[in-house]
Amino acid sequence: MAQRAIVTLPDPVLRERAREVSAEQLASSEVQALIDDMIETMRAASGAGLAANQVGELLRIAVIEVAGRNPRYPYKPPIALTVIVNPVIEPLDDERFAVNEGCLSIPDTRGVVERHVNVRVRHLDRHGAAHDVVRRGLTAGTFQHELDHLDGVLFVDRVADPATLTTWAQFEREHRAAFEQRARELVARVGS
Ligand code: NI
After folding, report:
1. Ligand 1 center from residue 70 Cα (angstroms)
2. What's the pLDDT tens digit per position in 146-168?
3. Is residue 136 a contact partner of residue 188, using CB atoms and an 8 Å limit?
4. How far away, in angstroms, is 142 Cα from ligand 1 center?
5. Does the structure show a pLDDT above 90 at 145?
6. Which of 41, 99, 101, 143 could form a disulfide with 155 if both were Cys (CB 3.0 to 4.6 A apart)?
7. Within 10 Å of residue 84's Cβ, how many Cβ atoms?
8. Can you give the residue ranges of every domain in the chain?
């Protein structure tokens, strides 16, 4: 395994739609090594997720994990390591939550994005097995953020009010306490 360089805005690879992964591609040593590298890169950067576009590969693969207390997002509930390949996401209802998000590809920037609270995610894992799961709350938001990457969409594109954009230091000072309170209430109510 090796860490890969994380691509940052405005690299155009972040704006491209990643391609579906065939069964043959997924089984290849190249793609399996890419997945290993994405996991290592996400962990080294304390990310909650990483999409293949972010390491310059236009394949519909993302990795997600919140192990214990994530230093970037200490209010996120744990998520076991999940490799999603060719994911499809579908909101289960109209409920939304205003999430304060960040992204490894947009350094020192946070902003408020509306995300669906309850979603169904269908995807393959790294071995090609099909999964059909319901994700809720902040975890649902994390899945939506990673799926957006695979479509070339960044969280800043979904920030409805540019006045919510801050540095991480400003977020800590001015918004973190209130957001964490709302986030914990959401997690307590809907789970993950
Ligand atoms: Ni991101």
Report:
1. 15
2. 999 999 999 999 999 999 999 99
3. no
4. 9
5. yes
6. 101
7. 26
8. 12-190
Task: Express as a percent the part of the chain with pLDDT over 70.
Answer: 100
Q: Whole-model pTM above 0.70?
A: yes
C-beta separation of 154 from 9 below 8 A: yes
Whether the link from the prior residue into 162 is cis, omega within 30° of 0, is: no
Homologous superfamily in CATH for domain 12-190? Peptide deformylase (3.90.45.10)
CA 5 to chain centre: 17
C-alpha span between 176 and 75 (Å, rounded): 10
Q: Which residues are catalytic?
A: 146
Q: Is a pLDDT exceeding 90 seen at residue 68?
A: no
> What is the pLDDT at residue 130?
98
Strand ranges (E), 52-137: 61-66, 79-91, 96-101, 111-116, 118-124, 130-136
Q: How far is the CA of 169 from the centre of ligand 1 (A)?
A: 18
